[in-house]
TrEMBL record, chains A, B:
NCBIfam families: PRK07907.1, PRK08201.1, PRK09104.1. Keywords: Hydrolase, Metal-binding, Protease. GO terms for biological process: proteolysis. It comes from the Bacteria. GO terms for molecular function: metal ion binding; peptidase activity. The keyword Hydrolase applies. InterPro entries: Bact_exopeptidase_dim_dom, Cyt/Met_Dipeptidase, Peptidase_M20, Peptidase_M20_dimer. The keyword Signal does not apply. This is Dipeptidase. Residues 200-350 form the Peptidase M20 dimerisation domain.
Length: 453, 453
């Protein structure tokens, strides 16, 4: 039976298995879910073994285990290292989900659940692609699977694991499905990713909460101070004001910008899809450019004072924010993290003190479009979509891509099947059944093309 | 036996009774405590009856009941209406209390508990003063007690109660102990209070939380927008920038400012008492002026995005803040509330929408220093402290003082015994045993002086 036929015959089971995995709330950012994270790793180990992978193991780390497995076909075949992650983002705010985040349902041909697209659904395409290939009796490449449980919190232990297991991880290329395509009728391959510099800041005023009547006017309110500091990080054109922030930014020539502009994009469609009155960003750049080739600074969370029911007239002792920057070539997270810490501390007004605590960082990457692997991926997508894919630059970050290059000397192919509208990191995350199945169909084509080149 | 002797003999019981009351967490701002609020009202009713008050009742309102009671001595005597409140501020953040907020303890001659000073401790001085006077066989004035349970959330139902019970509340003057003295060796009487305009603001960007990588740069982050809007409410001199905000502010002449400057004040002592690097405020005014004769704008709470453990790379759909302004004569809360709503809505940048929801307001007041009641209070303090009290203007708000004047035509005497350092509205609120007992000793002196004038 042909691969598509086998896939059609078994697709319901494939979906059931994925939904079983999605029921496990493997939230890595919150220690309360630690047991679930481990259960999610066990689940994957079992399914990799069932699909025929060998030497499947849970590799212990200082944090969550890395699920590793292999499928060897021959010395003469190229080896592909498949990377993904089984941890998911926190699901809150829960009340905005139309169905519970960890009770997956299929509605309108979409699988709704936290992790449906990012990244359990896309990892599971690879597990099932192996099953399909074995059912066909043809696995064209040697495969190695490395699926971590800390991608959403910075992959620190993965970096250590990779450093310590270079021989085990020897391969010719890395394959990752953790990105997307432009549309289900517009296949594309991401060739660029932004880096990340993430910080928690703490502004301290008085040594205790104060009555805003008795003290108001004579004490700089740390919330007001924090707001003033954050506001000063952008100018009126939404340029970032941190000195030196743009120094390393690679500016694209008109030709490159024109090429990127080829990708179909509707400004009004973009605004409508997220209910925005207007898309707003850095002056002088288009919306696709603002989300790909330009760095950003966003407050991901802020809190301070009384946030309960009703009114409390308090001047709080402290105010906090989580602030992250997306980086582009040739910025480095180390350099931007240092610039941010130095600058944010320096702009603290008299009357408050400031602490900046960096979280994880990640490096921006550009992957080559002239490599054997990229061309194999392009041909695979053309086969399954009937259309040549366009190269795109994504706004997200997969910090380990740069780490794989530096530690293993390997390039990465980003063969992702999600859509921007999948609401990853948001309430009601979902993944198209079409996209899940198309991924399972396309991945074997990639191996075929790659082995043949 | 003399009044001081009786007080000395019974002071331990008086303290025990107060601590029993403080054990009831009568937090009016949080519906979760509604049952406790009612228990606190019952407790007071019982103690007023025990002290000898007549016609003690719980007057139902649309919200929490008002405890009312009377003590009648004769048509020929003046009538004093004693006002206070039995509700307390929320106690969070609980973790900053050195002992639990609703398990009162006496340490270093201080009673530690939420409400110890604001206002249960000061209300209870009046209950015990009645007991002491009756033990002496001399109550110089007719007394009416009106103690509400919604002062910390705006006293809306008290205003309705007063409108509907003008005959019942007929009196010659209003006596309130909900303020403080400058120091235990510097008796003072507050003659001015600031008003209040309190708002909750909501800034909405995209219709759902977004991935800060996929969307960052092309979407105005509502937290960044809120910070920019809040920052713009003050200029570099900490003047408030809302158009028309200062138009009605009564500016004091040099003579008046010089008189206020008489009150002993130590800038360094002020800074040290709250662990401030530096007291910061509106240019051109001293710290005591900034907290009394000048209006303010403070953010009392702010929240948005991910505030949990770890990192989440999200652009939230919404950001919120609670913003309040302290008002001075001749501002009105109605006018400032309208100005704030209009202005804050008008400064919303393109890309977000803004909602402003006013909470309660209150009017600033100045009470006369040449009235019979003020002079009686001054003589009473001079008798018990051995020192003439100084008139001061406080920064807090007791909105109902202006309401009593407009509805009942009555002036108020603010005979309070707290200290700024009592940490009301903060963790570790406390009230000096000295202050509690001195209040019980001074209140009968006030009635004696007032009846004699």
């Amino acid at each position: 039976m042909s691969a598509p036929a086998y896939l059609t015959q078994h697709q319901n089971r494939f979906l059931e298995e994925l939904m079983d995995w999605l029921r496990i709330p493997s939230v890595s950012a919150d220690a309360a879910f630690h047991g679930d994270v481990l259960r999610a790793a066990d689940f994957l180990k079992e399914k990799l073994e069932a699909a025929g992978a060998a030497n499947v193991e849970l590799c212990a780390t200082a944090g969550n285990p890395i699920v590793y497995g292999e499928y060897f076909v021959g010395e003469d075949k190229p080896t592909v290292l498949v990377y993904g992650h089984y941890d998911v983002q926190p699901a809150d705010p829960y009340e905005l989900w139309t169905s519970p985040p960890f009770e997956p349902v299929i509605k309108d041909e979409q699988i709704y659940a936290r992790g449906a697209c990012d990244d359990k659904g896309q990892v599971y395409m690879h597990v099932k692609a192996l099953e399909v290939m074995r059912a066909q009796g043809e696995v064209p490449c040697n495969l190695k699977f490395m699926v971590e449980g800390e991608e959403e919190i910075g992959s620190n232990n993965l970096a250590i694991f990779v450093k310590e297991n270079k021989e085990k991880l020897k391969a010719d290329v890395i394959l990752i499905s953790d990105t997307g395509i432009l549309a289900n009728d517009v296949p594309s391959i991401e060739v660029g990713l932004r880096g990340l510099s993430y910080h928690e800041v703490e502004v301290t005023g008085p040594n205790r909460d104060l009555h805003s009547g008795l003290y108001g006017g004579a004490v700089l309110n740390p919330i007001n101070a924090l707001c003033r500091m954050i506001a000063s990080l952008h100018d009126e054109n939404y340029h970032i004001t941190i000195p030196g922030f743009y120094d390393q930014v690679a500016t694209l020539g008109e030709a490159e910008r024109a090429e990127l502009a080829q990708a179909p994009f509707s400004e009004s469609g973009f605004e409508q899809s997220i209910g925005l009155p207007a898309a707003v960003g850095e002056a002088g750049y288009t919306t696709p450019e603002r989300t790909s080739i330009r760095p950003t600074l966003d407050v991901n969370g802020i809190w301070g004072g009384y946030i309960g029911e009703g009114a409390k007239t308090v001047i709080p002792s402290k105010a906090f924010a989580k602030i992250s920057m997306r980086l582009v070539p040739n910025q480095t997270s180390e350099q931007i993290t240092a610039l941010f810490q130095q600058h944010f501390t320096s702009i603290a007004p008299a009357g408050v003190t400031v602490q900046v605590r960096p979280h994880h960082g990640g490096e921006p990457v550009l992957t080559p479009t002239d490599s054997v692997a990229y061309r194999a991926a392009a041909r695979a997508l053309e086969t399954t979509f009937g259309k040549k894919p366009v190269p795109t630059r994504g706004g997200g970050s997969i910090p380990i891509v740069a780490m794989f290059k530096s530690e293993l000397g390997l390039d990465t192919v980003l063969l992702g099947f999600g859509l921007d509208s999948d609401a990853i990191h948001s309430p009601n995350e979902h993944f198209g059944v079409f996209n899940f199945l198309k991924g399972i169909e396309t991945i074997p084509e990639f191996y075929k093309e790659y082995a043949a080149s």
